Amino acid sequence: MSVAVITGSAGLVGSEAVTYFAERGLDIIGIDNDMRAQFFGKEASTRWVRDRLCANLPRYEHRDLDIRDAREIESIFKHYRKNISLIIHAAAQPSHDWAATNPVMDFTVNANGTSVMLEAARHFAPEAVFIFMSTNKVYGDRPNHLPLIEMETRWELDAGHPYAALGIPETMSIDGTLHSLFGASKVAADILVQEYGRYFGMKTACFRGGCLTGPNHSGTQLHGFLAYLMRCAVTEIAYTVFGYKKKQVRDNIHSADLIRAFDEFYKSPRSGEVYNMGGARYSNCSMLEAIDRCEKIAGKELRLKYVEENRQGDHIWWISDVSKFQKHYPNWKVEYDVPEILREIYDLNIERWRANVDGREK
Q: Which residues in the chain show pLDDT less than 50?
């Protein structure tokens, strides 16, 4: 028996990982207590994903647990021990805006929760591969000091800059910048995961994601850019854009592309690695470009509100350089681009969104 322990198992990354690795013969222990609903409200609940996983995947066992509960987490690892071959830690408080409303909870979930998971793995499944879903927010606002040029629909990096061709690499410093409290708690967790790899020799990796997206995303205003934008276009909810003339740029990676990267690392792990992970130059868009695409798919104009002041610590331009990961794992590449992602989000959620608007919540 080979077991995968996946935290945040009903979230975007976790649920994609559950399905992927269950289909490949692993028994899955999913840990998720739907704190997303506590963070962002009922509309952000992941229970609909949890229920689908439980109904459709015989290899899936759900545990409604808080990752900060060391006793309960330890009991799972103690029970399965060396049968655990893979740990994907995707549970988190994911919003830098929300973190400022409750810094203590943000830190305990993101940093302390990661410590609990690492210690359980070290004591009971030290040979397991440990994959941590980190964030590009560990770099703080340093990307905003790059030489950016304003174009018609987006900000773009000066073509002469070393990052222009591929994006931002892992060598960018994380020091001396404004991170947001969320970024700080994720830095703590990120460094801890690296340290358990280097100090204890565990097979750990931090995947520093940009905008992670896909049809399983329970997007809200504070987190889940493309999914929430598409939902707003369909349901006529007003969408607020903060600053940068609506030209801020993000690369977007489909959760399926991300999980295939996890699988490559799982099959040939390393210790204490760090990878920037996103849609790179293949899959990126500005806010204006995303709005235009959503309006065309939905067939209606988005209700839009613009606030001149940007969110504190927010990036103007982010495109991930994924060349380090591709050098280590040459069989992997990004397959989904932004138009494909948005079309899939629309096609797989349109009925549920419309039912919710009609008061028939699923």
A: 360-362
